[in-house]
Design goal:
With 480 residues, this protein is α+β, with helices and mostly antiparallel strands. The chain has three domains: 84 residues, Phosphorylase Kinase, domain 1 (2-Layer Sandwich); 182 residues, Transferase(Phosphotransferase), domain 1 (Orthogonal Bundle), CATH 1.10.510; 190 residues, Sandwich (Jelly Rolls). It has eleven helices and 22 strands. The strands form six sheets. The protein has a six-stranded antiparallel beta sheet with strand order 1-2-3-4-6-5, with helices on one face. Strands 12, 14, 16, 17, 18 and 20 form a six-stranded antiparallel beta sheet that branches. A hairpin with a 3-residue loop joins strand 1 and strand 2. Helix 3 packs antiparallel against helix 5 and helix 8 packs antiparallel against helix 9. The longest helix is centred in the middle third of the chain and has 23 residues.
């Protein structure tokens, strides 16, 4: 098939606008209705393969059901001289991949607005029983007016598992955006598209994919085995809630992601609303530690003693209240899986020191502002020594809860920490997470036999050559 040829007596091929492994896409002029269309033609070598022809026809049937402003519309399907083709509406503009390559990282608001339109289109497809399975920026067309449309449902599958259309053992998709379960040949569902959209949003914000590699297998294995980097590591001005949203979308376990694409879209909308209100870091950036220390010294030029005494007194009263509530049972919270829950920095636990450790700063670790922090520093032999084997930030969930994870954000990465949990104020409790060397954003998976109220970020080792550690933000997520 060549430019200048006419298909089905009406579609005049004018330009190749896309080329894939199975098909090519042309801009064509529809002489019957006097309009431009996009004509997708199956490659000649696949026209004799019944499986490929059926997949191609299935795409047309599937997408023809999806009349949505964020999905490219199917106009026609047919066969001409043994060649299978599908006719789509023609979108005048570039695809999302071309935009990211041209501009690099996008403005936070622009990235969220595009992601929201993609999510709405995919949610509509899911509601009609289809999972895309190949969500990537190349398959998002931009109309030049800010509108985004999802296209190329060529490997889409029905969500009707009972009819065994969602197959096990078949790996299809593009490796840079492929979900772990898809890469390992496991069944896919709506969670798979959630993961891929999370990758697309990460790329829009950072200008690069989280798992680069030399070939399909190498990249796919990273998706299966390696934890994704935090968007904050590549771009510090991204608000914390947005970074957490991407982290959740990129969970290895599909059940830990957003339960539906609608839920993902709702969270994107909430983040856009916070940008409109100027909340949660609309102008937030991660400030180097040296600058923070300078600000801290400046703040200390005004005597904090009266305020400190008042806050310490309030914290002491709060400790008594927590102890009484704990003894009375306190009650539990039924927290949905993966849902962020409210926790509050309640003080410090310093059994190897003088009993206090910047207690008044504990609320700063949960105030939603990554520019503020709770801190600790070494004394004499340091945290590793006998006199200071550890120190912790105490977090109060206001009731006993079962957590799935706790995320810690810091601007002093390199210290070692773990999460402890207890229902008794003033005790270290039990270890409920693995120990990790903390990066700028670190997720602690929580493994606990019973719900707890108090959680402690227990620091056991400072960074090599470091003399202090900051906990800028802590967020907690429910387990159900």
């Amino acid at each position: 098939m060549v430019v200048g040829e006419t298909i089905a007596g009406r579609y005049e091929l004018e330009e190749v606008v896309g080329h894939g492994g199975m098909s090519s896409v042309y801009r064509a002029h529809d002489s019957l209705l006097e309009r431009y269309v996009a004509l997708k033609v199956l490659h000649q070598q696949y026209n004799e393969d019944e499986d490929f022809v059926e997949r191609f026809k299935r795409e047309a049937r599937s997408v023809a059901q999806l009349q949505h402003p964020n999905i490219v519309t199917v106009i026609d399907r047919g066969e001409d001289d043994g060649r299978q083709y599908i006719v789509f509406e023609y979108i005048e503009g570039e695809n999302l991949k071309e935009l990211v390559v041209r501009k690099g990282r996008l403005d936070v608001r622009a990235a969220l607005e595009i992601a929201l339109e993609i999510a709405r289109g995919l949610a509509f497809a899911h509601d009609h029983g289809l999972v895309h399975r190949d969500v990537k920026p190349q398959n998002v067309l931009l109309n030049g007016d800010g509108g985004a449309k999802v296209t190329d449902f060529g490997i889409a599958r029905s969500l009707d598992v009972e009819r065994s259309v969602t197959q096990t053992g078949t790996v299809l998709g593009t490796s840079n955006y492929i979900a772990p379960e898809q890469a390992s040949g496991q069944p896919v569902d709506a969670h798979t598209d959630v993961y891929s959209l999370g990758i697309v949003l990460y790329e829009m914000l950072t200008g690069e994919v989280p798992f680069p590699g030399e070939n399909f297998v190498a990249v796919a294995m990273k998706h299966i085995q390696e934890p994704p980097p935090s968007v904050l590591d590549a771009r510090g001005d991204v608000p914390l809630r947005i970074a957490e949203m991407i982290d959740r979308a990129l969970e290895k376990d599909p059940e830990q992601r957003f339960p539906t694409m609608d839920a993902f879209a709702t969270e994107i909308e909430a983040n856009l609303a916070e940008l409109d209100r100027g909340e949660d870091g609309a102008i937030t950036m991660v400030v180097p530690a040296a600058q923070r220390l300078q600000r801290q010294r400046h703040r200390k030029s005004v005597s904090p003693l009266p305020l400190l005494i008042g806050l310490l007194g309030a914290l002491a009263i709060a400790a008594v209240v927590i102890g009484l509530l704990t003894l009375r049972g306190g009650g539990g919270q039924n927290v949905p899986v993966g849902k962020a829950i409210t926790i509050a920095g309640a003080g410090a636990y310093d059994p190897y020191g003088d009993g206090t450790e910047h207690d008044a700063d504990a609320p700063k670790a949960t105030d939603g502002d990554v520019l503020t922090y709770w801190s600790t520093e070494d004394y004499n032999s340091g945290l590793e020594g006998v006199k200071k084997a550890g120190v912790g930030l105490v977090l109060d969930a206001t009731g006993v809860v079962q957590l799935s994870r706790i995320t810690v954000v810091t601007d002093t990465p390199g210290f070692t920490a773990e999460i402890r949990a207890t229902n008794i104020q003033g005790t270290l409790g039990q270890k409920v997470s693995d120990s990790h060397v903390v990066g700028r954003t670190t997720r602690f998976a929580i493994h606990q036999p019973a719900p707890k109220r108090l959680y402690i970020v227990w620091i056991t080792k400072l960074a090599s050559g470091g003399h202090f550690a900051h906990v800028n933000e802590v967020r907690a997520f429910g387990k159900g």
